[in-house]
């Protein structure tokens, strides 16, 4: 006896619990499916808007396919200063940001575990995008007095991606909520309250559009 404890067995690969081996607390597949579908729609809309912006720059008198009437007019919105707030068409931002969201969604479907800081940062960035999308909607609705269908697609898609990220972060407690608040919020998510709120919000927006332009839609 030397008085020293015998060395324990050397740790093996099977003894180690790696991050990719840790089972997810929640199944986020449908959350990432919603993110993927929404970001793909937004990317398509951003591409169409970008092409239209280039066409308008070359010929301000060009007639766009979505110039339907006085209420639905992509050209009227695109030629307003609000459509190029940063000095270039807002749609260019979608061409840059949406591929990032698509990558996150695909990685999530592949069961990649994201660091907490990464998803919180994504939530903050998309919150800025959400404010920007609704700022343009408000400007179109009240100031420009015309709506762009592709812009509405971007607004709706941005809303869906933001709420999908929020659902993920709440379920994973990325915001470090208190146990009581976290349990309450997750219980609401379990019954689909977030989906109901988004559906109700879209219904309110649709009703507001119809009420404002009913003379155009219904003669």
**H/E element order:** HHHHHHHH
Radius of gyration: 23 Å
- Quote the average pLDDT: 89
Distance between the termini: 100 Å
Biggest β-sheet description = none
Q: Per CATH, what is the topology?
A: de novo design (two linked rop proteins)
Q: Unreliable stretches, pLDDT < 50, 5 or more residues?
A: 5-23
- Helix count, per DSSP? 8
Helix content: 55-70%
Sheet-strand content, in percent, reads under 5%
- The appropriate CATH architecture is Up-down Bundle
Number of beta strands:
0
Structural class: mainly alpha
For the record, the CATH class is Mainly Alpha
CATH superfamily: VKOR domain
How would the blueprint of this fold be written?
Elements: H1 29-58, H2 74-78, H3 91-109, H4 116-144, H5 149-171, H6 179-190, H7 193-212, H8 214-217
Protein name: Putative membrane protein
GO molecular function, one term: quinone binding
Family: Belongs to the VKOR family.
Structure description:
It holds the Pfam family VKOR. The chain crosses the membrane at residues 30-51, 91-110, 117-137, 143-166, 187-211. The chain is mainly alpha-helical. It has a single domain (24-217), classed as de novo design (two linked rop proteins) (Up-down Bundle). The chain contains 8 helices and no strands.
Keywords:
single chain; 219 residues; mainly alpha; de novo design (two linked rop proteins)
């Amino acid at each position: 006896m030397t008085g020293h404890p015998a060395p324990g067995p050397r740790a093996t690969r099977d003894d180690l619990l790696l991050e990719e081996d840790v089972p997810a607390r929640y199944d986020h597949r449908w959350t990432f499916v919603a993110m993927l579908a929404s970001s793909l729609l937004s990317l398509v809309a951003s591409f169409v808007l970008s092409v239209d912006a280039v066409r308008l720059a070359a010929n301000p008198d060009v007639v766009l396919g979505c110039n339907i009437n006085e209420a639905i007019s992509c050209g009227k919105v695109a030629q307003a200063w609000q459509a190029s707030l940063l000095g270039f068409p807002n749609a260019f931002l979608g061409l840059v940001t949406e591929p990032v969201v698509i990558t996150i969604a695909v990685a999530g479907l592949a069961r990649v575990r994201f660091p907490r800081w990464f998803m919180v940062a994504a939530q903050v960035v998309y919150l800025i995008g959400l404010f920007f999308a609704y700022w343009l909607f408000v400007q179109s609705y009240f100031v420009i007095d015309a709506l762009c269908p592709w812009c509405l697609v971007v607004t709706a898609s941005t809303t869906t991606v933001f709420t999908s990220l929020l659902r993920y972060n709440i379920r994973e407690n990325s915001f470090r909520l208190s146990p009581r608040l976290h349990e309450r919020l997750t219980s609401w998510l379990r019954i689909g309250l977030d989906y109901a709120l988004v559906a109700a919000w879209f219904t309110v927006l649709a009703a507001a559009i119809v009420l404002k332009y009913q003379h155009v839609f219904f003669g």
